[in-house]
Specification:
This protein is of the alpha+beta class. The chain folds into two domains: about 120 residues, Probable inorganic polyphosphate/atp-NAD kinase, domain 1 (Rossmann fold), CATH 3.40.50; about 140 residues, Sandwich (Tumour Suppressor Smad4), CATH 2.60.200.30. Helix content is about 20%, strand content about 40%.
């Protein structure tokens, strides 16, 4: 039963701004409490989201990532509505939003739980931070003229030292994002497996790999030149030589509301790749 809904819109998209107003009016007319905002507003006022039954994300995959970041700590499901270029995470468009909401109000749809990854940043035995990602964790070069050396171990077993533009650890959801652009495999998003993908690696015979869902990946920076840690494309945290980033599947999940059968992923995937 829907009682409170948050509507997240992209402030840089006129279509998203307009549709968000219309959706709030539509929900309110049906007796559902609805509030709209951008991600910064909801971060600054978490009480606006904390007890919602649903968040509707109007935009591309970037908007969906921001919605996920807001919602998974509160276990709030997200309904992504495609307004972006690719929108791999969405399955309905703006022309289907009202029929979709009617379906949810009437008890239809199903919950699609997506795995998250947790990354811990360590320096000299001290944990500097912990971050959670829906798509990927990336160590990348901060200087365009230099590669980074990243030593990777999996479950405490040394794998290799990549000399590359960077290294990605992605979820199955993230396998169709940056990891795919870097040459990684597409993994069924229902999987909890992790994906390890080097970015433009030099002189290595270790390709991208699909890892067990419980694998623990440790990436140690072995370059004297600084590098960056990015989590779902945000933060850009400075790394120095010797820093370690330990990545494992998070105990939390991100929940999406779906209105079509799960096997539609493959049909939609081909269509979206053709558009890209």
């Amino acid at each position: 039963m829907l009682e409170r809904v948050a509507v997240l819109y992209n402030p840089l998209s006129d279509a998203s701004i307009q549709l968000s107003r219309e959706v709030v009016d539509w929900l309110t007319a049906r007796g559902i409490s609805a509030t709209r905002g951008v991600s910064q507003e909801f971060r600054d006022q978490p009480q606006l989201v904390a007890d919602c039954d649903l968040m509707i994300a109007l935009g591309g995959d970037g908007t969906v990532l921001r919605a996920a970041r807001l919602c998974f700590p509160h276990n709030i499901p997200v309904l992504p509505v495609a307004l972006g270029h690719l929108s791999f995470m969405a399955e309905i468009g703006p022309d289907e939003i009202y029929s979709g909401c009617e379906q949810i109000i009437n008890g239809g749809g199903w919950f699609d739980e997506r795995a998250l990854v947790r990354a811990q940043h360590w320096r000299n035995g001290q944990k500097l931070g912990q971050h959670t990602a829906l798509n990927e964790v990336v160590i990348s070069r901060s200087d365009l003229s230099r590669i980074v050396n990243v030593h990777v171990t999996i479950d405490d077993s040394p794998l290799t030292t990549y000399h590359a533009d960077g290294v990605i650890v992605a979820t199955a959801t993230g396998s169709t994002a940056y990891a795919l652009a870097a040459g990684g495999p597409i993994v069924d998003p229902r999987s909890q497996a992790l994906v390890l993908v080097p970015i433009a690696a030099h002189l290595t015979n270790i390709p991208s790999m699909v890892l067990h869902e419980d694998a623990v990946v440790t990436m140690q920076l072995r370059s004297r030149h600084h590098a960056l840690l990015a989590v779902d494309g945000r933060e850009n945290i400075d790394l120095i030589e010797g820093d370690e980033v330990v990545v494992r599947r998070s105990p939390q999940v991100c929940t999406f509301v779906r209105l079509r059968p799960s096997n539609q992923f493959y049909t939609q995937l081909v269509a979206r790749l053709r558009r890209s």
